[in-house]
């Protein structure tokens, strides 16, 4: 009995996890009511960045890839180092190599002005 209970609990948790996964659908219109201008803000900013620097499109894709490379696509690559925190931004494969942070900062500023506190940095980067 003492062994069965944890096994049942583990099964129940697995079932709940699978239900949760099957309900967690990605959606391209997730912000359509909470931040209706999101995609047009991002599109305009990215088009503008690419038209003044044609490599920027590839650089933004690479920035996203390197974000996802360490522990998931969580925008952690955007974090600056502090006195007591060393992040991904200055890690070997990224330091002086990743570009486009200013494009993301610009988009974040515009998105926060349009819909404060609604869109995550991870979603904006994606
Ligand atoms: C890290 O340093 C900042 C100030 O630079 C301070 O606010 C923060 O509490 C520190 N965090 C830890 C975990 O020591
Ligand atoms: C990142 O690059 C800067 C400038 O070249 C350098 O000063 C710094 O030590 C590097 N950081 C790491 C963690 O390698």
Account of the protein in words:
The chain is mainly alpha-helical and about 130 residues long. The chain has a domain of about 70 residues: Peroxidase, domain 1 (Orthogonal Bundle). Helices cover about 55% and strands about 0% of the residues. It has five helices and no strands. The chain is globular, with a radius of gyration of 19 Å. The protein binds 2-acetamido-2-deoxy-beta-D-glucopyranose (2 copies). The site of one 2-acetamido-2-deoxy-beta-D-glucopyranose has 3 residues, from loops. It catalyses: 2 a phenolic donor + H2O2 = 2 a phenolic radical donor + 2 H2O. It is an enzyme of class 1 (oxidoreductase). Belongs to the peroxidase family.
**Rg to the nearest angstrom?**
19 Å
List of distinct ligands in this structure: 2-acetamido-2-deoxy-beta-D-glucopyranose
What gross morphology would you assign?
Answer: globular
Instruction: Give a quick account of the main beta sheet: strands, pairing sense, barrel closure.
Output: none
Counting DSSP E segments of at least 2 residues, the number of strands comes to 0
The first-level CATH class of the domain at 56-126 is given as Mainly Alpha
CATH topology of the domain at 56-126: Peroxidase, domain 1
SSE-based structural type: mainly alpha
Mean pLDDT: 88
Level of helix content? Answer: 40-55%
Between the first and last Cα atoms, what is the distance in angstroms? 47 Å
Order of helices and strands: HHHHH
Unreliable residue runs: none
Which percent range describes the beta-strand content? under 5%
Helical segment tally?
Answer: 5
CATH-derived architecture of the domain at 56-126: Orthogonal Bundle
Cofactor: heme b; Ca(2+)
Binding site for Ca(2+): 67, 70, 72, 74, 76, 88
Catalytic activity: 2 a phenolic donor + H2O2 = 2 a phenolic radical donor + 2 H2O
Site (Transition state stabilizer): 62
